[in-house]
Specification:
By secondary structure, the chain is an alpha+beta fold. It is built from six helices and 15 strands. α1 (about 50-65) packs across α4.
Length: about 350
């Protein structure tokens, strides 16, 4: 496989302000494969041996601290769920625009669920709008075998069964597999922070667990003028990304260079998100990432966004604060932070005036 090295242009760095308010710079829009994202064998997270679980937790600790991204292999989720989800995604995005707009995200205030049309956002203010479209759905206690009594019903919008038979069922089937994996990963993250393994259990009984499917046509415009999805960070605690083999996901390294997150068959890409960065007082890194689809074909992906119960305060993790290292962020609930970020993003939606 050929490698593309990064051309450094120090006199003209690109600077972008994100939805979370932070500003970052990068050296060049050319990405590299010379830097690597860690690959972690997830089989040990299911081990009955505490030593195995602690060992993989230490690997996750280093990856979460140093780059905020890692691949998970041998994670235990059958690939057939991903294949069916991508099949359903292709059916949904092939629908006429008026059908997709029946579940337009603008119909649901304060939430990110529903359809997000093509060229709807411009996250970084480039010449052309981001070239992608998406469909989001949220956690549904009716689909969770471990749901607690009294959990609020989902606010998701769904196309009719007539238009897309089996769509909702297939998407929640995959969602359920990733929900199970995420709850186990939450215990591993607790070990990674040198906490008791059950430290976050109460936070994930009614989790924030949204998911989306995305469709990226091939970009014809230059990388300087358009992204598939512009540079951003995620909102919740961590994200599990299923990507097809087209490539295009890129991660911003600490040196200001874009790193290609090349697809590894059967793997997930996991990244730390802003709520976890806030709770760990920046010990974990919520890393900027984007998608550039220059593959010559359409690209599909399915990120699963996992976070803590919206009603819980995002209190600082005790191992990440001290007198010499006080908490950097105001304490708020996960729901307050989620609502702020969702409304800020949706306020830029070009289709708001059309519904």
């Amino acid at each position: 496989m050929s490698q593309t090295t990064t051309t450094i242009v120090p006199e003209t760095p690109r600077t972008v302000t994100l939805m979370n308010g932070s500003t970052f710079s990068f050296n060049s829009n050319t990405s590299t494969m010379l830097e690597k994202i860690p690959v972690i064998n997830a089989g040990r997270i299911w081990s009955e041996s505490p030593e195995d679980r602690k060992a993989v937790a230490e690997e996750i600790r280093e990856a979460s601290r140093n780059i905020g991204f890692f691949y998970l292999v041998n994670h235990g989720v059958d690939e057939s769920y991903a294949n069916e989800t991508f099949k359903q995604a292709k059916h949904f995005f092939a629908l006429p625009e008026e059908k997709k707009m029946e579940v337009f995200t603008g119909l649901v205030p304060n939430e990110y669920v529903g359809f997000h049309p093509m060229e709807c956002y411009n996250r970084n203010g480039w010449k052309h709008q981001d070239l992608s479209e998406a469909f989001n759905w949220s956690y549904d206690p009716a689909e969770d075998p471990e749901a607690v009594e009294g959990a609020e019903a989902t606010v998701s919008l769904w196309p009719s069964e007539t238009d897309l038979p089996g769509f909702r069922k297939a998407l929640y089937a995959y969602h359920g597999q990733l929900l199970k994996l995420s709850r186990r990963l939450t215990r591993i993250f607790a070990l990674a922070l040198h906490l008791p393994e059950n430290a976050f259990d109460e936070y994930v009984r009614r989790p924030e667990a949204g998911m989306r499917i995305l469709h990226y046509p091939e970009q014809k415009h230059s990388v300087d003028d358009q992204n598939g999805i512009g540079a951003h960070t995620d909102v919740e605690c961590f994200t599990i990304v299923t990507q097809d083999m087209s490539g295009g996901l890129e991660v911003l390294g600490k040196n200001g260079n874009w790193i290609k997150a090349e697809p590894i068959p059967g793997s997930f890409v996991v990244n730390i998100a802003d709520c976890f960065m806030r709770q760990t007082n920046d010990f974990f890194v919520s890393t900027v990432h984007r998608v550039i689809n220059k593959s010559g074909k359409e690209r599909y992906s399915a990120p699963f966004f996992f976070g803590f119960d919206r009603r819980k305060l995002l209190t600082p993790v005790e191992t990440c604060v001290s007198e010499d290292n006080p908490m950097k962020y105001p304490v708020m609930t996960g729901g307050e932070y989620y609502a702020w970020r969702s409304n800020k993003q949706k306020s830029t939606n070009l289709y708001n005036a059309k519904k």
